[in-house]
Amino acid sequence: MLMKQMNLPLIGTLIVLSLIVCPVLYFHMGPELDAAQLSVLKTIAIIAACSALWCFAVGEITRNNSQVDKLWSILPFVYCWIIAIEGGMQPRLVVMAVLATLWGVRLTFNFARKGAYRIRFWDGEEDYRWQVVRSNPILKRRWVWMLFDLLFISVYQNILLVLIVLPALVSMRSATAFGWMDALSAVLMLAFIIYETVADEQQWAFQSKKWAMLKSGKQLEELPEPYDKGFNTIGLWSVSRHPNYMAEQAIWVCFYLFSIAAGIGIVNWSLMGALLLIVLFVASTNLAEEISGGKYPQYADYCKRTSRFLPGKKYRS
Description:
Layout: H1 8-28, H2 35-62, H3 67-72, H4 75-86, H5 91-112, H6 128-134, H7 142-163, H8 166-170, H9 180-215, H10 243-261, H11 272-295, H12 299-305
Helix pairs in contact: 1-7, 1-11, 2-4, 2-7, 4-5, 5-9, 7-11, 9-10, 10-11
């Protein structure tokens, strides 16, 4: 998920943040986990470890590195339901699990219609960005790629999927009843899920029509406006270059708000997942824009005139 001019120091920073900074935050910002919470975390960690090993082994054997991508939308809501069940199905935990499930089902559907899943579950369309990442000169050595695959693609990203659900885990033993802030967090999270759904539907409709015209024999420059640009500039995409990415980051920030509602503290260590996710999305966006800039001549102008994440002034060609 990173840039063609691979920012390996950034990847190293991400891993350091996870392995060093996160434990420091745990001991200095927020409550320690009790025995029940540690038991749940152990269960989740075992699942994550098995997932990481599976993704690494299958990715290396098949040369399809979208194995983590296939699980990305599934594991978080599975973890949330484990926490909710072990937490006695408290209203807050159930609401968090339901919202995580809505997020996961929507994202899984969006990934599935792109051809990511097959009956032979190790097959399926690989995210186009991995091919770009593999072209990096540093990663062309087989052993270097295997190390990158193991540490970053498989292990780090599975760790991140655990970290983003930590607000549910720290809320598990809360004595604070479900209240107005929980309701606000739920409404905001649902709103961003809907926003992301609309953005993905608009992108799907645009790309489907564009490719249908291209497959009919037309050249890109022969397509009608706005399809002749090659990239989407209508709907939510006219006021933000990545409305889906913006919503995805906001969803997990809203998920963190539940921990505040649970009385854990305005700033507590369960924030680490949302923060690291934002860092990862910034890097992923760099890659996506580098690819689009190389394919479409007008993309640079679109970048200059349109906000990256937050909605801004409407783009006009």
